Amino acid sequence: MTVEKNEKFLKDHGIESWGDFNDAPIPYRKCDISEFWRSFSFKTVLDIEYRQAKLEKNRHDSFKIVTFSDAIYIINVEWVYPNKPEWIATCYLVGCDHEYTIKDLGGCDHIATCKKCGYSYGYNSSD
Ligand SMILES: [Zn+2]
Q1: CB neighbours of 46 closer than 8 A, spacing ≥ 6?
Q2: Cis bond before residue 27 (omega within 30° of 0)
Q3: 87 Cα: distance to centroid of ligand 1 (angstroms)
Protein backbone atom coordinates (compact mmCIF):
# COMPACT_ATOMS: atom_id res chain seq x y z
CA MET A 1 0.00 0.00 0.00
CA THR A 2 1.25 3.49 -0.80
CA VAL A 3 0.00 6.55 1.06
CA GLU A 4 -0.41 9.70 -0.99
CA LYS A 5 1.64 12.46 0.63
CA ASN A 6 -0.88 15.19 -0.18
CA GLU A 7 -1.54 18.46 1.71
CA LYS A 8 -3.95 16.78 4.14
CA PHE A 9 -1.43 14.05 4.95
CA LEU A 10 1.31 16.64 5.61
CA LYS A 11 -1.00 18.80 7.77
CA ASP A 12 -2.32 15.79 9.73
CA HIS A 13 1.21 14.77 10.62
CA GLY A 14 2.69 18.24 11.24
CA ILE A 15 5.13 17.90 8.33
CA GLU A 16 6.51 21.01 6.62
CA SER A 17 8.03 19.13 3.70
CA TRP A 18 8.03 15.47 2.64
CA GLY A 19 11.36 16.01 0.84
CA ASP A 20 12.43 13.76 -2.01
CA PHE A 21 14.87 10.95 -2.70
CA ASN A 22 17.85 13.02 -1.46
CA ASP A 23 16.08 15.01 1.26
CA ALA A 24 14.57 13.83 4.52
CA PRO A 25 11.08 14.95 5.49
CA ILE A 26 11.09 17.84 7.99
CA PRO A 27 10.80 18.32 10.86
CA TYR A 28 12.13 15.21 12.60
CA ARG A 29 13.64 14.52 15.99
CA LYS A 30 15.78 11.71 17.27
CA CYS A 31 13.87 9.25 19.42
CA ASP A 32 14.45 5.97 21.16
CA ILE A 33 13.92 2.91 18.92
CA SER A 34 11.42 1.62 21.52
CA GLU A 35 8.96 4.29 20.28
CA PHE A 36 9.08 2.68 16.85
CA TRP A 37 8.60 -0.83 18.27
CA ARG A 38 5.63 0.36 20.33
CA SER A 39 3.96 1.70 17.16
CA PHE A 40 4.92 -1.47 15.32
CA SER A 41 3.13 -3.64 17.88
CA PHE A 42 -0.11 -1.56 17.97
CA LYS A 43 -0.47 -0.04 14.51
CA THR A 44 -0.45 -1.07 10.87
CA VAL A 45 2.45 -0.18 8.58
CA LEU A 46 0.91 1.77 5.68
CA ASP A 47 4.00 2.58 3.69
CA ILE A 48 7.79 2.07 3.61
CA GLU A 49 10.01 4.30 1.52
CA TYR A 50 13.76 4.19 0.86
CA ARG A 51 15.88 7.35 0.86
CA GLN A 52 19.48 8.48 0.72
CA ALA A 53 19.79 11.86 2.41
CA LYS A 54 21.67 13.78 5.07
CA LEU A 55 20.41 13.27 8.60
CA GLU A 56 22.54 14.42 11.52
CA LYS A 57 25.93 13.71 10.02
CA ASN A 58 27.30 15.64 7.11
CA ARG A 59 27.01 12.75 4.70
CA HIS A 60 24.29 10.82 2.98
CA ASP A 61 22.71 8.05 4.98
CA SER A 62 20.56 5.28 3.61
CA PHE A 63 17.36 4.91 5.57
CA LYS A 64 13.75 3.83 5.48
CA ILE A 65 10.72 5.99 6.23
CA VAL A 66 8.04 3.85 7.88
CA THR A 67 4.53 5.33 7.89
CA PHE A 68 1.93 4.15 10.39
CA SER A 69 -1.61 5.54 10.61
CA ASP A 70 -0.60 8.35 12.96
CA ALA A 71 3.17 8.16 13.34
CA ILE A 72 6.08 8.26 10.89
CA TYR A 73 9.61 7.13 11.66
CA ILE A 74 12.97 7.35 9.92
CA ILE A 75 14.99 4.21 10.62
CA ASN A 76 18.69 4.34 9.82
CA VAL A 77 20.56 1.06 10.32
CA GLU A 78 24.35 1.16 10.19
CA TRP A 79 27.10 -1.42 10.50
CA VAL A 80 29.27 -0.04 13.34
CA TYR A 81 32.65 -1.55 14.16
CA PRO A 82 34.64 0.39 16.76
CA ASN A 83 35.04 -2.54 19.15
CA LYS A 84 32.52 -5.26 18.59
CA PRO A 85 30.97 -4.97 15.10
CA GLU A 86 27.21 -4.77 15.21
CA TRP A 87 24.16 -3.32 13.47
CA ILE A 88 22.94 -0.13 15.17
CA ALA A 89 19.50 1.33 14.42
CA THR A 90 18.91 5.05 14.89
CA CYS A 91 15.32 6.20 14.99
CA TYR A 92 13.72 9.60 14.30
CA LEU A 93 10.09 10.63 14.64
CA VAL A 94 8.86 12.70 11.69
CA GLY A 95 6.39 15.57 12.17
CA CYS A 96 4.21 16.16 15.19
CA ASP A 97 4.83 14.11 18.30
CA HIS A 98 1.08 13.68 18.77
CA GLU A 99 -0.27 13.87 22.33
CA TYR A 100 -3.89 12.79 22.38
CA THR A 101 -6.87 13.55 24.54
CA ILE A 102 -9.54 10.88 24.16
CA LYS A 103 -13.24 11.74 24.09
CA ASP A 104 -15.65 8.88 24.85
CA LEU A 105 -18.73 9.15 22.62
CA GLY A 106 -20.46 6.10 24.11
CA GLY A 107 -21.02 2.72 22.47
CA CYS A 108 -17.24 2.12 22.41
CA ASP A 109 -16.78 5.04 19.96
CA HIS A 110 -13.96 7.44 20.73
CA ILE A 111 -12.31 10.46 19.16
CA ALA A 112 -8.61 11.07 19.75
CA THR A 113 -7.47 14.68 19.24
CA CYS A 114 -3.86 15.86 19.36
CA LYS A 115 -3.33 18.62 21.95
CA LYS A 116 -0.47 20.07 19.91
CA CYS A 117 -1.63 20.14 16.27
CA GLY A 118 -5.37 19.35 16.35
CA TYR A 119 -5.15 16.18 14.25
CA SER A 120 -7.96 13.81 15.19
CA TYR A 121 -9.25 10.39 14.31
CA GLY A 122 -12.12 8.21 15.47
CA TYR A 123 -12.01 4.60 16.53
CA ASN A 124 -14.21 1.96 18.12
CA SER A 125 -12.58 0.26 21.09
CA SER A 126 -14.54 -2.97 20.53
CA ASP A 127 -12.81 -3.55 17.17
ZN1 LIG B 1 -0.12 16.38 16.69
Answers
A1: 1, 3, 67, 68, 69
A2: yes
A3: 31
Between CA 96 and CA 101, with CA 99 as vertex, the angle to 5 degrees is: 140
Query: Ligand 1 mean position to 122 CA, how many Å?
Result: 15
**Ligand 1 centroid vs 105 CA: distance in angstroms?**
21
pLDDT tens figures, 87-101: 999 999 999 999 999
Q: How far is the centre of ligand 1, averaged over its atoms, from the C-alpha of 40 (Å)? A: 19
Q: What is the pTM of this model?
A: 0.85
Rounded-to-integer distance, Cα 124 and Cα 109, Å: 4
Cα of 118 to ligand 1 centre, how many Å? 6
pLDDT tens-digit map of 48-101: 999 999 888 777 789 999 999 889 999 999 888 888 889 999 999 999 999 999
